[in-house]
Write a structure and sequence with these properties.
Protein name: Cryptochrome/photolyase family protein
Strand content: 5-15%
Number of strands: 7
InterPro entries: Crypto/Photolyase_FAD-like_sf (IPR036134), PhrB-like (IPR007357), Rossmann-like_a/b/a_fold (IPR014729), UV-DNA_repair_photolyase (IPR052551)
Distance between the termini: 62 Å
Shape: globular
Structural class: mainly alpha
Number of helices: 21
Helix content: 40-55%
Pfam families: DPRP
Organism: Streptomyces cinereospinus
Amino acid sequence: MTAAHWLFGDQLGPHFLAPGDGGPARSAPVVMIEARSVFRRRRFHRAKAHLVLSAMRHRAAELGDRVRYVRAETYREGLREAVGDGEVTVHHPTSRAALRLVSSLAGVSLLPARGFLVPHDDFLAWAGGREGRRLLQEDFYHWVRRGHGLLMDGDRPAGGRWNYDHDNRRPPPRGARTLGAPAPYRPREDGIDDEVRRDLDRWERHEGISFVGRDGPRLFPASRREALAALRRFAGHRLAGFGPYEDAMLAEDRVLSHSLLSSSLNLGLLDPAECVERAEAAWRAGSAPVNSVEGFVRQIAGWREYVWHLYWYFGEEYRYGNALGHHAPLPGWFLELDADAVAARCLSTALAQVRDTGWTHHIQRLMVLGSHALQRGWDPRAVTDWFHRCFVDGYDWVMLPNVVGMSQYADGGRMTTKPYTSGGAYVHRMSDLCGGCAYRPTERVGERACPYTAGYWAFLHRQRARLADNPRMRRAVQGLDRLPDLAEVVRQEERRGDAPP
């Protein structure tokens, strides 16, 4: 008898059922389990819970009689109900917790991971060949491009350069309220979404399960058909304008030219290969410039792959890294996404977007939300958990390296060479968010002192001993000696504490 195949809720595309190369049998019945315990353990954003459940149920509807869809309290209970003592295969899960679970279950056979460009063994071989050198993302990215013939002209990168970052860091056009990019694809809700929303309401009323954030009309794809439509829309209409302003922020333009494909990739609705190949095809057809295409390809073939592999390579102890000794708890206003309590316009805008949609782009995550957490000394594990719960594309493998390594520098530099934080001048340069704000990016002290500017210097003062010998931070740390009001800044920020800025 053919073993059943278990699909997790982030393995929803057809490539997870394709036979051959370590895939399940073509005739294998499919098992899907909706475990309520997942939502009891963490207080997820309601829009995220809605998206994941809607996507799972849409996939089950597509599979029809082939799938046994079980709603249970736990995965163990659901699997027992679905197959009893029968044999089951499953592709390598995306979290350590899920891997421990499937490894502990009798009769479950583990198949290779799918949904990524680089197999685990290939990454280990690349990392092992570094001979003690740092696992630099840029070197990894070049290796992936060469190995997959991606955006290459022979043995050289397309356009003559590997990296177009220099061309892709423009501030928004002066006076512009939006970039004027074509609108992104937005799905239409259906009866499955209605059912999910009723179930979430019932869980909140009767099951003791609670959520954070708002669940408006679903904004992100929940089916393969919708995800492909979103990919076509981005590649055909939005990719061309993506590159130059990918780091910009505008108060009235939440999505700019970003792809909004991260949740579809992380649910497994899209395969990364089809995304980067479509982008490259747009460049070769002359419909998108190389800097925009390279920037998008780097996000997927470079950063996404790099983060996935570092999650497994660094091991479970990486989760507990706290090189800067940050232990402050997250304040209630941040946990509750209470944007209305915040006067700093950049932070209020980003927090409101998380509250309303469960998504912001990478600069808001890193240089607004993450930077504030870093400056205030919040516990990196709590910050990681917050990003995991509150973002529709947030999963353990995504957020652990991104937050512990990139955003909070809690690994002491294993992933990045310096803490990513700045004063208000960066936000002022890259956005229109300082206009109309209660604070001024140039002021460190007083009622109008920017919490990012003052917070930046207070952070450097607090971490001076740890950062003084960092080559990329040395000049910034030395700048402390030129601040005549440093003592006043430090006292002011100690008084401010974790009150909403």
